[in-house]
Amino acid sequence: MKFNKWTLGLAAVGVVSLTSAARADETKISQLNTALSDTTISGYVDVSAQFNPNGSSGGSPNYNFGNKANGINLNVVDIALDKPLDQSPWASGYHVELWLGPDAQALGTTPTSSTTHTTFYGNYHTTGSSPAAIRQAYIALRTPIGNGIDWKIGVFDTIVGYESTTSGNNPNYTRSYGYNMEPTSHTGILGTYKINDIATVQAGVADTSYAGGGAYSAAYNNQMYLPTVMGGVTLTAPDSFGWSKGATLAFDIINTSGSLAQNPGSNGTVNNGVTNTGNGNGATTYYAGVTLPTPIAALKFGASFDYLNARDVSQNEWVGAVYSTYQFSDKLSLNLRAEYLDAQSLDASGAYTATSTGYNQAHEITATIQYALWANVLTRLEVRWDHSNHTGAGGYYSNVSSGVGTPQADAFLLAAQAIYTF
């Protein structure tokens, strides 16, 4: 056992004994080991290669996470520390998840080295680049009311959406139109209550909501404290449903009272490349989603519907999507997605830009072959086609790096992705 000089000095004059000091150090080490014994470390490394024949931004639909067209890319390194809740009635835990790499700049949850960032209510939404960001960071608690209410307090993933911010949890490499128009994460409090094996409800309140690189990021109205509120219910089919057991049906809603992208106090200024024209009225996101097994064990279907009523800018849009997965073997699967977007005064990405005028419609079809050849490695090959029904769609269909230019009716993508999970 090694002792520092201060401990040795106190022992020399008889103030402490080396034996008691050793026991104290051992007690502290034991307490630390006990505290960390239930903590797990996990994460992944996500890389990709992407080819876009339309050009540097035309049809470059890893939409929320920067321009990756015609290049080999490090997407993100994810590192998570987690102590999940145990079964005790007053259980506690935490989850900290950090992103390192180019995709981190899309989350908007931490400051960057860029001098062009803007501060809103103690949080950051920036136009610069960032090598690191907080993906999630919350304290988990349980209160023994009824079956127990589980709480998240801090920064946590949004409750809406068919797709996750974690690419490997999704059926496809590229994100959907629906994902692009949804909030990504919130800073607030979220409670989850499992009524029974069938029904689970969630409700929460947040100061801020962030979108993963999309144009709509919301915060409370700066004229009065009106926070973001959210709630939803998920129904799960029990074992008695036979082949359809495990099917889920979810309904969620998020209402925000202001926005960062259209900052109500700064009309005419630019944040995240968007001219602020908001009136402070916020927006409401509605979501419905279903996952459905079939009598064929290898075949599964899913569907989602997103509706955004953006009162800030008197605009709205909706997206309908269908998904299917066929599992050929434990390692090989084929994932398909088809979407239709209908937007008034929005471009096909769901972004509010100077070129997005009129009534815009777009659709896309994505096919992804997924194969696990190496241990802990997920590999994908993906083909995607986007089509705009309106020449003013702009956004993803333009052929210049700024995303503003002469629209193109069609955009194509070919991509490969590899994710190592640890």
Present the secondary structure layout.
Elements: H1 5-12, H2 18-36, E1 40-51, E2 71-83, E3 92-100, E4 117-120, E5 123-126, E6 132-143, E7 149-157, H3 177-181, E8 185-194, E9 199-210, E10 218-219, E11 228-236, E12 248-256, E13 270-271, E14 274-275, E15 283-293, E16 299-310, E17 315-327, E18 332-344, E19 359-371, E20 377-388, E21 410-421
Antiparallel strand pairs: 1-2, 1-21, 2-3, 3-6, 4-5, 6-7, 7-8, 8-9, 9-10, 9-11, 11-12, 12-15, 13-14, 15-16, 16-17, 17-18, 18-19, 19-20, 20-21
Describe what this molecule looks like in 3D.
There is one protein chain. By secondary structure, the protein is mainly beta. The protein folds into 2 domains: 1-37, no CATH class; 41-421, Porin, CATH 2.40.160.10. 8% of the residues lie in helices and 46% in strands. The chain contains 3 helices and 21 strands. The chain has helices at 5-12, 18-36, 177-181; strands spanning 40-51, 71-83, 92-100, 117-120, 123-126, 132-143, 149-157, 185-194, 199-210, 218-219, 228-236, 248-256, 270-271, 274-275, 283-293, 299-310, 315-327, 332-344, 359-371, 377-388, 410-421. The strands form 3 sheets. It has a 16-stranded antiparallel β-barrel. It starts with a helix and ends with a strand. The model is unreliable at 57-62, 111-128, 212-216, 260-279, 346-359 and 391-407 (pLDDT under 50).
